[in-house]
Amino acid sequence: MSHSSSSTQPRPLARYGWDDTYEHAFTPHLAAGLIPARIVRAERGLCETVTDAGTVRAEIPAAQQGDPLAAPCTGDWAALRPGTADHAAILQTVLERRTALVRSTASRTSHGQVLAANVDTVVVTVSLAAPLKHDRTERMLALAWESGAQPVVVLTKADECADAASAQAEVSAVAPSVDVLVTSAVTGEGLDVLTAVLTGTVVLLGPSGAGKSTLGNALLGKPLLATGAVRATDGKGRHTTAWRELLPLPGGGVLLDTPGLRSIGLHDAQSGLEQTFADIQQLAEDCRFTDCAHVSEPGCAVLAAVEAGTLPERRLESYQRLLRENAYAASRTDARLQADREAAKKDITRHLRATYRFRERQQ
């Protein structure tokens, strides 16, 4: 039987997003006796994958775990060396990613961490049962735009909000060029509209307590994701999702649920920030100076908009704060790379000196 995704019998992997482009890219791996797989979960040197033959647990070689940005993660397409009676399957290589949702590591080091790969739609979840935090929404949107995927803002728990329409208008003002949808997993409000705009691999992004898992279950049509109660004191929930996992959606596509994120640090997200704050970018085109920082410069169109009340001062402050954070993360990355280069040079020098000393002793 042909395994081509264009045949009358498509690969079972098609349910997980496999297409002709991946089929073509996999040709050399197929010739080497490897099989295609999509990573469902990856943790501690092992990963759970889905293949044409079903679920396969594979080992991740140590060489592929060193760089957090390159390490296999949920959503990656991979080439597996099939297991034998004596040895488990081995993840041989990861195919080139189309998109990647990257944040700085929780420790705020100079390293980035890939939350999900090959994502098509990022659903930024915002709970209407708690006070709106626009700074956090803007941060998540920058992350989403930078990934290369299409963001969608979903306002959850509309059944617990007295004026969802006003909240929708408020959030829309901080999410230019993004659909902002009102939903309720309890009443079913907005779920049909949301389902219509979701495409491909869909990732749910947001803090604990935002209703991601409940929303995910509504989209899946089954209670497959664990949910938990939210504390009344601060509106936060427990991290009921402990890892990322992929689940096929009934109408096509794949759902990727992520743990609630306590912190979302930016990592090399300049383009994402420019798209998130497209309104400020547009205003800046009329500034007198091309390198205007929008602080106190004369002829600043952005400050003029703040003065006129057409641009909230809070939004400009959020933009400048995220720009500083992103610049700092970039400088830390540059410093780390420079340190790595210097360390490599020192290793080479030590090796050469040891070689010369050895030769001298042989003479």
From TrEMBL:
Any Pfam family: RsgA_GTPase
Primary location group: cytoplasm
UniProt-listed Enzyme Commission number(s): 3.6.1.-
A Gene Ontology biological process term: ribosomal small subunit biogenesis
Cofactor stoichiometry and binding remark: Binds 1 zinc ion per subunit.
Top-rank taxon: Bacteria
CDD domains hit by this protein: YjeQ_EngC (cd01854)
Entry-linked InterPro entries: G_CP_dom, P-loop_NTPase, Ribosome_biogen_GTPase_RsgA, RsgA_GTPase_dom
Subcellular localization, as worded in the UniProt entry: Cytoplasm
Gene Ontology MF terms: GTP binding; GTPase activity; metal ion binding; rRNA binding
Enzyme class, broadest EC rank: hydrolase
Positions of GTP binding: 156-159, 206-214
Ligand binding (Zn(2+)): 287, 292, 294, 300
GO CC field: cytoplasm
Positions of the EngC GTPase domain: 117-262
Boundaries of every CP-type G domain copy: 103-264
Its biological purpose: One of several proteins that assist in the late maturation steps of the functional core of the 30S ribosomal subunit. Helps release RbfA from mature subunits. May play a role in the assembly of ribosomal proteins into the subunit. Circularly permuted GTPase that catalyzes slow GTP hydrolysis, GTPase activity is stimulated by the 30S ribosomal subunit.
HAMAP family: GTPase_RsgA
NCBIfam families hit by this protein: ribosome small subunit-dependent GTPase A (TIGR00157)
Subunit composition and interactions: Monomer. Associates with 30S ribosomal subunit, binds 16S rRNA.
Similarity remark: Belongs to the TRAFAC class YlqF/YawG GTPase family. RsgA subfamily.
Listed name of the protein: Small ribosomal subunit biogenesis GTPase RsgA
Species per Swiss-Prot/TrEMBL record: Actinomadura coerulea
